[in-house]
Every structure is written in structure tokens, then in C-alpha cells.
Amino acid sequence: MSAVTPEPPPSLMTPSSPPAPAAAPLAAGEPRADLLAGVPGVSLDEPSSRRARREHRPLNALAVAALILAILLSPLAALFGHIAAGQISRSKGRERGVVIAWVAVGLGYLWLVGAIIAGVVIWQVLTG
């Protein structure tokens, strides 16, 4: 007895479409035009290093200071965060950090409420 191997169907034997041509190799850091075509704000005419430099915006230092104060459990984080958020909104997009500022505001108010509650409890214990 000889083993009979089944022949594959004709649709698998002949390719239905020619293979796609190989893409030309890209230099390091160059964007692929097929992936970035139609993405708003992306221009493939200028080099990627110039595009990255143009989009860099500094982080507001007061927002970072407010977040550090919030981590250190200081109610002053609310004040610093409000000032930082105002500076960022007045910069009209030239600065980053609005989320950091508002997180610091929220934590600052949380610590302020906690300090008031702790003060009331301590006052009640000492006078009561």
C-alpha cells in the first residue's frame, strides 16, 4: 500500500494577487508615510527633528511645585495649583502641566479639609 497525499485545492496553489513590493528601508527616526498620512498636525515635508523641536512645550514649574507640596500633605498645594493653572491658561498653549496643577489643587483641598477636621478633633479633646 502506498500513501496517497491529497493535492491542495487550486485556490491555494496559485496566488490570487501579486505580492506587495518591498518598502524602501527608512533612515533611523524617519516616519513611515503610510502610517502618518492623514494624521492631523503631522507634516511629512519637514524633518522629524524639526517637528519634535517645534512641538516641545515647557512644563510649568509652579505646577510641579504644587504637586510636590500636595505629596508632602501641604494645603498650600491648592493655592499654588490654582496660580499654576491660571499661568498655563494665560500662556495659550505655550506651557504644559494643567492636569498636574489641578491634581495638586484637589489634593491641596483634601489636605486642607483633613487639617481642619484634625484641628477640630484636637480642640475637642483638649477642651472637652
Can you put this structure into words, describing what you see?
The chain is an all-alpha fold and 128 residues long. The protein is built from six helices and no strands. It has helices spanning 10-13, 33-36, 48-55, 61-71, 76-90, 98-127. The chain is elongated, with a radius of gyration of 30 Å. The N and C termini lie far apart (104 Å). The model has no long low-confidence stretch (mean pLDDT 82).
Task: Specify Rg, calculated over alpha carbons.
Answer: 30 Å
Helix tally equals 6
Proportion of helical residues: 55-70%
β-strand number:
0
Mean pLDDT: 82
Structural class: mainly alpha
Low-confidence stretches: none
> Approximately how much beta-strand content do the residues carry?
under 5%
**Main sheet characteristics:** none
Secondary-structure element pattern, one letter each: HHHHHH
Q: Which geometry do the CA atoms define?
A: elongated
Query: Termini separation (Å)?
Result: 104 Å
Can you describe this structure in just a few lines?
With 128 residues, the protein is mainly α. It has 6 helices and no strands.
List its salient traits.
single chain; 128 residues; mainly alpha; 6 helices; elongated
Can you lay out the helices and strands and say which pair or pack?
Layout: H1 10-13, H2 33-36, H3 48-55, H4 61-71, H5 76-90, H6 98-127
